[in-house]
Write the structure tokens for this entry.
Amino acid sequence: MTRRILASLVAAIALSACPPPPPVIAEGEGEGEGEGEGEDCTRVTVGPVRFGFQQDVSTHFEAQLTTQIGTPVFDHLVFQFINYNERIGDGGIGSFSLSETPNDNYSTCTECLLVFQDQLEANDTPTKVFFQSAGSITLTANPRETASFFGNVRGLKLVESTIDGETLESVPVAGGDCLIVEDIDVDLRFVPAGWTCDPALYNSDDGVCECDCGEVDADCFVDFGEPAPALIVGCAAGQTCLARFLPDFSSEPFCADTCDALAGIGCSGTAVCAIAEPQDICETDATRVATAAVGGTCANVPAQYLCGVVDGIATGLCNNGEPETGENRECRPLCGSAADCEAGEFCYSIVGGSLDGEGKGWCEPGTAP
């Protein structure tokens, strides 16, 4: 996504409402002494920092102000961490100014702190919005990837601002109010509400995938280039742990048999070997399998992506077809690298790599993007 789209999606949430206090999943106390400047600013303190929600473009946390501003209605300090490319991985760890580019305006910020004044319910419009104008935030882990928040905020000052609904530009209100927030130290380790095992086992980075704890352990999944879990608890030998998404948008872990499509190691019964990371899996959902042979035409059904099934292995994948309509999808040969493709083709990688042919995907005519 572009920076504009990312910011637009986050701003739409922020401008419509600040989330009400969510159930306490994990929390870190806000404490310390403020160092901010501002003779006419109101000095405020905050309560426990809580996880709010995570989506594909941002991760949110919030804390209620324990100092009353405005009327006796909830006031919220909201943290928004945006998934810009420069903040992925280790780029999201360190100390960041809240008053310098890109964090000097809401339309461009990557670490965005706002206060919503007088907002009792999630859909209520706050009487005032304050945006950061001074201070720094230090992160010792990337909250965008862990949903945990370890770090601190120092010297935070926010000024009353308006935020344009189209451009997302934040503009200080002339003669408006300002807030100085006491320094905040956060030690918040996220654990899903449905987790049934010891909280210390979730996302512990110990090389163990817990697949029988009610929620999917983040240790079960790896970034590109990282090793697979050394041990999977709760699954039989030869199985891996996956997430099954439910109608209410939650997920649950389940064990799946493994295979190796490129090595010709298929699945038994009606299951079809499908490329996956870190191991290929035996797909048992027949709605994901197209009837087309390699070189044939797949139906315009996005869920059907496996094709060319031979001896329990999907030897091909349905490509994207026409850019606008998705029509004329072709069953293209499976590949693990460009070496598996014919001259004049590249490996359009969708698993374990990138579009330049370093991972598993299908052979596509032309040159890599």
Q: What stands out?
A: The first helix runs from residue 3 to 16. Residues 286-369 form one domain. The radius of gyration is 24 Å.
